[in-house]
Write a structure and sequence with these properties.
The complex is a heterodimer of chains A (113) and B (114). With 113 residues, chain A is mostly beta strands. Chain A has strands at residues 4-7, 10-14, 19-25, 30-38, 45-51, 56-59, 62-67, 72-77, 86-94, 102-103, 107-112. In chain A, the strands form two sheets. In chain A, strands 2, 4, 5, 9, 10 and 11 form a six-stranded mixed sheet that branches. A five-stranded antiparallel sheet of chain A has the order 1-3-8-7-6, with no helix packed on it. Helix content of chain B is 0%, strand content 50%. Chain B is built from no helices and eleven strands. In chain B, strands 2, 4, 5, 6, 9, 10 and 11 form a seven-stranded mixed sheet that branches. A four-stranded antiparallel sheet of chain B has the order 1-3-8-7, with no helix packed on it. In chain B, a hairpin with an 8-residue loop joins strand 9 and strand 10 (104-105). The chains are: A mainly beta (113), B mainly beta (114).
Chain lengths: 113, 114
């Protein structure tokens, strides 16, 4: 089955700086890669996603890049703000195989004021 | 904006007891999921459900677990005989259609097994 690795487990950045979180996946058939933000005690909320026919997608301060050849994808947050502090999870979903999402272990992003 | 809802928010039970976790998916969604998240760990897929039957289940989803859509709106997860290691946050999710459509998560039920 699919396996998703996520790094780093904790990331501390100064407010206003950029943050980058990286994930790799194992199943070359995976074709959908969402990113979820989870604040303490709350539900995971989708912040951005990318499908395998696209190499990059941007939504205001958030962008995701996908390298299918290397089987990795990354989340980029620019001009970080205190409200960006949360745990971020990457996930992958296959085409012909698993219907459920396979999640990475999460990155605890801390924005230092 | 429509949201997935779950009840109860917190369930405490004794080991060996049966529990039923309830979810109301978004009304026009066709695919339903249960995930669990042990404290401090990643979210793990349990089961997916479509057209009134299980479409896929993970290794975690053993004979102690079952799912049901008893009516047109509810989607339930039953754990027949709870174990200490079943203590976790259980999330329900739903999506409209299409494998790469967004899955929307509910707020979760925190299950504590004593």
């Amino acid at each position: 089955g699919e396996n998703v690795e996520q790094h780093p487990s904790t990331l501390s950045v100064q407010e206003g700086d950029s943050a980058v979180i990286k994930c790799t996946y194992s199943d070359s058939a995976s074709n959908y890669f969402p990113w979820y933000k989870q604040e303490l005690g709350k539900r995971p909320q989708l912040i951005i996603d990318i499908r395998s026919n696209v190499g990059e997608k941007k939504d205001q301060r958030i962008a995701v890049t996908l390298n299918k050849t290397a089987k990795h994808f990354s989340l980029h947050i620019t001009e970080t703000q205190p409200e960006d502090s949360a745990v971020y999870f990457c996930a992958a979903q296959g085409w012909g195989g698993a219907d459920g999402l396979t999640f990475g272990k999460g990155t605890h992003l801390i924005i230092q004021p | 904006e429509p949201e997935v809802t779950q009840t109860p928010s917190h369930q405490v039970t004794q080991m060996g007891q049966e529990v039923i976790l309830r979810c109301v998916p978004i009304s026009n969604h066709l695919y339903f999921y249960w995930y669990r998240q042990i404290l401090g760990q990643k979210v793990e897929f349990l089961v997916s459900f479509y057209n009134n039957e299980i479409s896929e289940k993970s290794e975690i989803f053993d004979d102690q677990f079952s799912v049901e859509r008893p009516d047109g709106s509810n989607f339930t997860l039953k754990i027949r005989s709870t174990k200490l290691e079943d203590s976790a946050m259980y999330f329900c999710a739903s999506r409209m259609t299409g494998r790469t459509d967004t899955q929307y998560f509910g707020p979760g039920t925190r299950l504590t097994v004593l």
